[in-house]
Design brief:
By secondary structure, the protein is mainly alpha-helical. The protein folds into 2 domains: 298 residues, Creatininase (Rossmann fold, 3-Layer(aba) Sandwich), CATH 3.40.50; 48 residues. The protein is built from 13 helices and 5 strands. β4, α5 and β5 form a beta-alpha-beta unit. The longest helix is centred in the C-terminal third of the chain and has 23 residues.
Length: 375
């Protein structure tokens, strides 16, 4: 029986799905019997879990919450994407490695840095971090030697919390727990996979499409395309009329980021990541202020250009997500890459790490206390 996640999708481009080797009308492995090595965690028995060979047992864990995605996409946009990356990557890995035990876990609907509008479900980044650490600990005790955390949400503190939790569990419990999603998504939405996108499409992207796909992404061209391919009935019909839009950036942080970047460059050092981090954080803060206090003008519920979306771009996007996630999984499981090296720019900036403020307060308090003792 098909569940809500597996319902037939509408308006599939038959020529496109045929060109990448998929069956029209069911352009994912969901339409085929699962590989023998593929299992759903909720269907396993205790006896089967006891037979796990840690060295060849891998779990795929989606982690994304509900969040407002413009006026046109469902609240579960990130949840659908996390599920897609987990299940499709798991099935493809199982196809390639029938000697492994490949387990798809139920999605954890939890997230940080969500757009604070009615319908979004958000927790503090530290809460997310602790939840994923606790979950990873349980998976390690269950006998999983590898855990792949997938994520469809681009919130900086969300991604940072997931990556930090994976590193902690990997070190503490001696398993390989990692999350490739943020790095994979960032490469795609910044235009780094345009060449492969065009190869899959069988045509060049128009200048309008290229521009619309790189001006920012939250319910924009990429995500709207994803959902059109996933289930067009869940996309509101007004999406073609939604033009380019971006949240306001918080000006004080933008000025600080520019000053720090310029200072770094005067010393002959690369400031690209610093500038990107400042811009991203300024956008997040500006969006938060916009949602809560109207900062910057009218309410902003999406970022990018949904009007450039299409089913065929969505199919290409989904294919690239699965391929790129699988590539990382293959590298880690083969020992060619250590799990701690699977990270995005979200792990580069201390200020967005879980527990940063608490640690800062403890350090300041300690300095004040020590100072008072010696005065």
């Amino acid at each position: 029986m098909l569940g809500a996640y597996d319902r037939p999708r509408e308006r599939v481009n038959v020529d496109f799905v045929a060109c990448i080797g998929l069956t029209a009308g069911a352009p994912t492995t969901y339409g085929r019997p699962p590989p023998l090595a593929f299992h759903r965690a909720e269907e396993l028995t205790y006896a089967e879990v006891r037979r796990f060979d840690r060295a060849r047992t891998i779990a795929f864990q989606p982690v994304s919450a509900l969040e407002v995605h413009g006026p046109h996409l469902p609240l579960g946009m990130d949840w659908y994407m996390a599920r897609w990356m987990a299940e499709e990557t798991a099935r493809r890995f199982a196809d390639r490695h029938p000697e492994w035990t490949v387990v798809s876990l139920p999605a954890l609907s939890i997230g940080a840095d969500e757009l604070p509008l009615r319908g979004s479900m958000s927790v503090p980044a530290r809460t997310l971090y602790r939840a994923v650490v606790a979950h990873g600990r349980a998976l390690a005790k269950a006998g999983y030697g590898f855990v792949v955390v997938t994520n469809g949400h681009g919130g900086p503190r969300h991604a940072a919390a997931l990556e930090a939790a994976c590193r902690w569990v990997s070190r503490r419990h001696r398993i390989a727990m990692f999350t490739p999603s943020a790095a994979v998504l960032h490469r795609i939405i910044t235009g780094g996979r345009f060449e492969l996108t065009e190869e899959l499409l069988g045509r060049a992207l128009s200048e309008r499409e290229r521009h619309g796909l790189v001006i920012g992404e939250h319910a924009g061209g990429w995500e709207t395309s994803f959902m059109l391919a996933q289930d067009a009935s869940l996309v509101d019909g007004e999406w073609p009329t939604l033009g380019p839009l971006a949240p306001p950036r918080w000006k004080p942080l933008m000025r600080l980021g520019e000053w720090l970047s310029a200072r770094r460059e005067r010393r002959g050092r690369d400031a690209t990541k610093l500038r990107q981090g400042a811009e991203g954080l300024a956008g997040s803060i500006g969006w938060l202020l916009n949602a809560r206090f109207g900062y910057g003008g009218r309410e902003v519920t999406y970022k990018g250009d949904p009007s450039v979306a299409s089913v065929e771009i969505g199919e290409a996007f989904r294919e690239i997500l699965a391929r790129d996630c699988l590539q990382v999984v293959e590298q880690v499981t083969a020992g060619r890459r250590v799990p701690e090296d699977v990270r995005s720019i979200a792990s580069d900036h201390a200020v967005i790490q879980p527990g940063f403020m608490l640690k800062t307060v403890v350090i300041v308090a300690s300095v004040v206390l020590l100072g008072s003792l010696f005065l």
